[in-house]
Amino acid sequence: MVVLGRITAPFGIQGWVKIHPFGDDPLAWRRMKHWWVSPDDTLDDSAWRQLHLKACRLHGGTLVARFEEIADRSAAEQLGKLFIGAPRDAMPEPGEDEYYWGDLIGLAVENRSGVQLGTVSGLIETGAHDVLQVRDNTDGTERLIPFVEAYVGEVDLTARRILVDWELDW
């Protein structure tokens, strides 16, 4: 399951909910007829509950959504702070040089000299740009590498590798 965001609060009286998206184009999710919810983002895909998307829009910088199964505010309150996700094959295909964070997790990171820096363990959204969290497989050291063209030279999902302009001692 690709985790897309998290419900933060009910919105209005007609069953709408506010959502904190974990990506930069949440309106693209409108193309998916179903969203999946779970109280725990680490659960197996079969544990996620499917909801039918009725509407999704931006409202004053906040993403709000409504589901067919959620009729009113009381039902929206029952959702709590569930995670929103979708199976990878239900997601819109990313554009050229765009990646889902979930596709980057676990990729090996090496520099142009062939030195292995570790494995992507997560990403951080800083506002200015995203940052790769790279965990060194030998000593557990974490490196934070800006996910920008100046430092990230190539992302090869097939080879499961990211090539960076970064040194071991930085």
Record keyword descriptors for this entry.
SH3 type barrels, 2 domains, elongated, 170 residues, 45% strand, Elongation Factor Tu (Ef-tu), domain 3, mainly beta, six-stranded mixed β-sheet
Structure, described:
- By secondary structure, the chain is mostly beta strands.
- It folds into two domains: 2-89, RimM (Elongation Factor Tu (Ef-tu), domain 3, Beta Barrel), CATH 2.40.30; 101-164, PRC-barrel domain (SH3 type barrels).
- It is built from two helices and twelve strands.
- It has helices at 73-79, 101-104; strands at residues 2-11, 16-21, 34-38, 49-59, 62-67, 83-86, 108-111, 116-125, 130-135, 142-146, 152-156, 161-164.
- The strands form two sheets. A six-stranded antiparallel barrel has the order 1-2-5-4-3-6. Strands 10-9-8-7-12-11 form a six-stranded mixed beta sheet, with no helix packed on it.
- A hairpin with a 2-residue loop joins strand 4 and strand 5 (62-67).
- The longest helix is centred in the middle third of the chain and has 7 residues, at 73-79.
- The radius of gyration is 18 Å and the shape is elongated.
- The chain starts with a strand and ends in a 6-residue tail after the last strand.
- The model has no long low-confidence stretch (mean pLDDT 92).
